[in-house]
Amino acid sequence: MTYKLYYWTGIQGRGEFVRLCLEDAGADYVDVAREEGDDVMQPWLNGDHEGPLPFAPPFLTSGRLVIAQVANILHYLGPRHGLVPSSESRQLYAHQLELTITDLVAEVHDTHHPVASGLYYEDQKPEAKRRSADFRSSRIPKYLSYFEKAVERGGGTHPLREHSYVDLSLFQVLAGLDYAFPKAMKAMSPKIPRLRALAERVAKRPHIAAYLASGRRLPFNESGIFRHYAELDA
To answer: What is the domain range of residue 118?
Structure first.
């Protein structure tokens, strides 16, 4: 079966969490908008397409299934590609961790758009500086310390005691935070050795290493979720 992934072109964004899972699994998938343009998603988003109605990209089609929301997509893909333990308790824990990552990603977005998503960053810079100061000093340590503890309790190498889609998402989180907040992350790094080691292992996985070296892995930029503005990392 060929999966179809729908996400905006030109950015990694939330779609990257799904791509990493598909790439690591060696799954057959089409990144539809990259081939046909962003307009291909509008019938789905306007409700002019049969089936479940996604609120926003990313969403994935698998046969007749339409699955939206990153954590929900990964909850579906994980068991089918050996990227989550088989027990119900472990799968629920993986989903819990992924939902927490979703919360973190939303807070990252709000560092540069704290007032309204419809406004340009330049229209809310004072508020962004204030929000980012709290994010750097309070929220980054809170989230990453939690995930560091999860890895420790998982045996020191994985939060779920084996490789899973959560590992892939944590890799993406660290890569994005390193890009957006390099100074803050340099200060934080000595406190998260297990997370750093996990990210290094993920980057060396054969399918992931090939993906990272390919043109399919877009660079971070100032149109995505993880954005680097020097004044927000002061």
So the answer is: 88-205+224-233
